[in-house]
Amino acid sequence: MSAVTASGVRRIADAFAGSDRRAALMPYLMAGFPTVEDSRRIGEACVAAGADLLELGVPYADPLADGPVIHAAATAALEGGATLPAVLDVARALASRAPLVLMCYANMVFAPGADAFVERLADAGACGVIVPDLPLEESAELRDACDARGLALVPLVAPTTTPQRLAAIGRAARGFLYTVSLVGTTGERDSVQESLAAAIARARASTEVPVAVGFGISTPEHARQAADAGADGVIVGTRLVRAAGEGDDAAAAVSSVVGELAAGLARAR
Amino acid sequence: MSVEAAEPPIEHRFGAYGGQFVPETLMPALAELEAAWVEARADERFQATLEGMLRDYGGRPTPLYLAERLSERVQRPVYLKREDLNHTGSHKLNNALGQALLARRMGKTRIIAETGAGQHGVATATVCALLGIECVVYMGVHDTVRQRPNVQRMELLGATVCSVDAGSKTLKEATSAAIRDWVANVQSTHYVIGSAVGPAPYPALVRDLQRVIGEEARAQLLERERRLPSRVVACVGGGSNAIGIFAPFIDERGVELIGVEAAGEGLQSGRHGAPLTVGGRPGILHGSRSAVMQDAEGQIMQAHSISAGLDYPGAGPQHAFLRDTGRARYVAVTDQEAVAAFRELSRLEGIIPALETAHALAWVLAQADGELDLVCLSGRGDKDLAEVLGGDHA
Ligand SMILES: Cc1ncc(COP(=O)(O)O)c(C=O)c1O
Question: Is A58 exposed, middle or buried (0-12, 13-18, 19+ CB in 10 A)?
Fold first, then answer.
């Protein structure tokens, strides 16, 4: 275990606390999309353009929480040969630049076994993992494995989450609490939900870790609204994955969008 | 750690299998569904409504038929439980009707479903027409072609058929698309899952609703033969007709339970739909842990079967449990053998079976031993004529 990963949870906490923006900016990128090499460059460009943390998607053929853009990117990545070792190489290259959290579906976590999977994450320098189809009731084994290595198992809460569930999830949260802003799968939306401030307040009251908002955040305006609503962090996915699929220079395309998002989250001078 | 400390009133797990591997957004809906079912199950008025509709609208009880020429061919009595005579032509109506009534009871205004062969889609579209509920059915593009008559039926019944163009373009993708729709519309919508798969409480709920197949068959056989069958045989896609006919026999140790999966182009070819037969490491698909076709990294593999309803890389968690405990045995039959049985039953008995069902029949036809077989004739084969007569698959 490297010195960096021994403190994965700590690195995430420091990134939230140390962000000089109104909310920490966490771009999501799909490993292997449009190519493995491009995704590494995109990650580097994100950090250069102002990302405080990175979320790296592991391509999966049957992503139940994802809308069409990320689903298509995952399919393309798999067709392009983005195997787990290739994904972990990208993670390793990026983890030295910014705290990195993997987004990975449950079957890939349990295929080698939770312990073996977390061992590989730790070895790649990742700070934590988000498993969108692993609700609290199924998460104990993976959380124990993560805790044993100082990695964060980051849970999600949704607008439909009941108060009792929220309390239990908030207690079990490590790293940050991923607050899904809407009822639905990932994808760009025209506006953020009016109820976002209430959702963030509810999430915050349930936990001691930072509250990050994701799903549907697509523009600098949305990012600012999320910060206004009290988010400690903002996760932007589909908008960036779309940019990665457009134009010749994927890294430049993503970098320019991340730059705009970072500007949207700048503190007033 | 569990949010509810009490023992769940219907099974969440079958040994190491089952569970609830879904996005958090759906977890409250699963709890709501479970609570509604626990209540409805114990509500005499709900049960009376369901039974009345299964009888007067659906045509239950379905006959138990001693297939004499088939019996002569295999040198032992073979009884066919005639689910093909259900309204809409398969066992799928039992489940669709029960779940749609439950959805109405829960105040849901929209129903979604996935379908492979189209039989579950037709059953769901039918009950939605009857109850006046909006209905959307997801179906892989490949299946909309090979099961065209069922697409036409669904549209005639007023359902919207969404063809799914991703991945395998078959049942696996249709199910994923339905789950994504449910994630986005969970407050208004009930997802009528079509087999004994999915996150808890679905595998137990679907089994409870299909159990009527086995209950009736058992009583009918006891009356006719004054004995239990030596073997109960059913095809397994996700496993709903099989678990329905198995359920009342699980505690009868003398009755052998046989589930017949799709061997497709052969188990060695890798192009099949037989995760229970092949075995291997369990996996997570569509919300539960069970037998799954997957690669070493945990990517779900594409299944293959000539029969759209068996063309699925997973199977219900209770079947995986019954297999591991030795209580049920799972075997597989190739496309070719199924097509031969499809033709043979048509000639022998004047019954054109669904290609799914033909897998169970092929296995029965191939056995030399046995005393008395009870076979679930899960559906009729009108939908398969183009595939068998016009196709180059066989
Ligand atoms: C007639 C018939 N039998 C069997 C099946 C397979 O489903 P299950 O295994 O859930 O019974 C189907 C599915 O489409 C079907 O239409």
Answer: buried
As beta bridge partners, residue B375 has B80, B233
B170 lines ligand 1 (CB under 6 A): no
pLDDT value at residue B390: 84
Kindly provide the b/e burial profile for residues B157-172, where b requires at least 16 CB atoms within 10 angstroms of the residue's own CB.
bebebbbbebbbbbbb
B92 flagged as catalytic: yes
| Residue among A212, A186, A241 nearest A42 (CA) | A241
Residue B9: pLDDT band (50, 70, 90) is low
Q: How far does CA B25 lie from the centroid of its chain?
A: 26
**3-class SS of residue B48:** helix
Residue A213 pLDDT more than 90?
yes
Q: What residue's CA is closest to ligand 1, atom 14?
A: B309
Q: Give contacts of A67 with chain B, Cβ < 8 Å.
A: 180
Kindly provide the residue ranges of all beta strands, DSSP E only, lying in A58-147, ordered along the sequence. Answer: 100-103, 128-130
Q: Read off the DSSP letter of residue B353.
A: B
DSSP 8-state class, residue B44: H
Tokens of B132: 């006046």
Read off the amino acid at residue B19.
G
CB contact under 8 A, B283 and A62: no
Whether residue B210 is predicted with pLDDT greater than 60 in this model: the reply is: yes
3-state percent helix, strand, coil for chain B, nearest multiple of 5? 50, 20, 35
DSSP code string of B176-213: HHHHHHHHHHTTTEEE---SS-SSTTHHHHHHHHHHHH
CB B305 within 8 A of CB B272: yes
Domains in chain A: ranges and CATH: 8-264 (3.20.20.70)
Q: How confident is the model at residue B394 (pLDDT cuts 50, 70, 90)?
A: very low
Q: Do A135 and B22 touch (CB under 8 A)?
A: yes
Question: Which among B3, B25, B179 is the nearest to A180, CB-wise?
Answer: B25
- Cα A97 from Cα B226, distance rounded (Å): 76
Say if ligand 1 is within 6 A of residue B357 CB: yes
Ligand 1 lined by B147 (C-beta under 6 Å)? no
Interface with B, mutate which of A58, A83, A107, A164 (most B CBs under 10 A): A107
For the CA of B118, the nearest atom of ligand 1: 14
For the whole model, what pTM was predicted? 0.96
Cβ of B239 closer than 6 Å to ligand 1, yes or no, is yes
